[in-house]
Design a protein that fits this description.
alpha/beta, D-Maltodextrin-Binding Protein, domain 2, 2 domains
């Protein structure tokens, strides 16, 4: 469990902000762009990489890409970046939209590219399963928490309106639903209890279903809903962006006692014309410098030393469920339809919950019935 130490939080934050200022970088939020914050064109260079990513990490890449361009490996590499709903972005790359590096919300969106032949089967051989950063599922509420939201059960209170993306297009939506499902099913040991919760949530409380995590954040900012289920980094971004806003536009966020570990993988597309440059960029994402940038932008780093160094930036939780744990439980007894081996990890979770005939897919199609 990550401890929360206000004094340490401030000292770590000041150090990271100072580092970013020294490098001349300012984070930008919003839609896709090829401009470095501050108006400097980052598309120029004797070499070029196309980054296709899900919507949420844009603020991080807005700082990471300029930092990479200051290194010897990245100094002559220009970038184009496209951001959108994870599933939609994955399907575009599968149809051969130009891409050199992809970063998606969930592993199945890269698995789709492996099946399409544009990402190598061994893409996860990179350190940390090729996942340079992540987050945890959080509950974003209005300032003062007027609906008194603290637990997953609180989302089912009469009259509480919830905003979360549609899992048909958004990877973040899958993480958002896995958190309460894992909590209510005790990590998949009581599937019916988990599904009963999701049914009531969808039927009675999810009033807005945008296509992506970023669109869901925008909808909440515009006043829709009482609670936004989201990545912790989105909550941190919103909290910072609206700190000086009118009280009605300010927010707060809660990390439920039981939440879910979000892991956002990256991969090199094997049709790239600059394999050396693409690999150099992906390798850079795991450097101490980049890991500190991810942490400063609200994403949880993965390198142990930087995890420890930046721990005070993040709020605590009591139980963190993982896709590995849930997949191991949901995959039990699937050997008969999987060449004699039980499904595991995302393969098991997607098959059981989010595939065409998955239990949560059926819940959404029926409106929670």
């Amino acid at each position: 469990m990550t401890g929360h130490r206000p004094r340490r939080w401030r000292s770590v934050l000041f150090a990271i902000v100072a580092l970013a200022m020294t490098a001349g970088m300012v984070s930008a939020c919003g839609g896709g762009s090829t401009d470095e914050p501050g108006g400097v064109d980052i598309s120029s260079g004797s070499r070029h990489l196309n980054l296709v990513a899900y919507a949420v990490p844009k603020p991080g890449f807005d700082v990471v890409i300029p930092a990479f361009r200051k290194t010897p490996q990245g100094s002559d590499i220009g970038f184009s970046a496209s951001y959108g709903a994870s599933g939609d972005q994955s399907r575009k790359v599968a149809r051969r939209v130009p891409a050199d590096v992809v970063n998606f919300s969930v592993e199945p969106d890269i698995t789709r590219l492996v099946k399409a032949g544009v990402v190598d089967k061994n893409w996860k051989d990179r350190q940390y399963n090729s996942t340079p950063f992540g987050s945890v599922v959080a509950l974003v509420v209005r300032k003062g928490n007027p609906k008194n939201i603290h637990t997953w059960d609180d989302l089912l209170k009469p009259g509480v309106e919830v905003v979360t993306p549609n899992p048909g297009s958004s990877g973040s939506a899958k993480w958002n639903l896995l958190a309460p499902f894992a909590a209510k099913s005790n990590g998949g040991t009581d599937v019916e209890a988990g599904l009963a919760y999701i049914k009531e949530l969808v039927r009675e409380h999810i009033t807005v279903q945008p296509k992506s995590g970023r669109e869901a954040t925008t909808a909440f900012e515009q006043g829709q809903g009482d609670v936004l289920i989201s990545y912790e980094n989105e909550a941190i971004m919103l909290d910072r962006a609206n700190a000086d806003a009118a009280p009605k536009n300010q927010i707060d966020y809660v990390i439920p006692a039981q939440t879910f570990k979000i892991e956002n993988p990256v991969a090199v597309v094997n049709t790239t014309k600059d394999l050396t440059g693409a690999n150099a960029f992906v390798d850079y994402l795991f450097t101490d410098e980049a890991q500190r940038i991810w942490a400063a932008e609200g994403f949880r780093p993965v390198v142990p030393a930087i995890v420890k160094e930046t721990a005070g930036l993040f709020r605590p939780y009591e139980k963190l469920w993982t896709i590995k744990q849930l997949g191991a439980e949901l995959g039990k007894g699937t050997a008969a339809k999987n060449d004699g081996k039980d499904l595991t990890g995302w393969k098991a979770v997607d098959d059981a919950l989010f595939s065409k005939n998955g239990a949560i897919t059926k819940i959404y199609k029926s409106g929670g019935q």
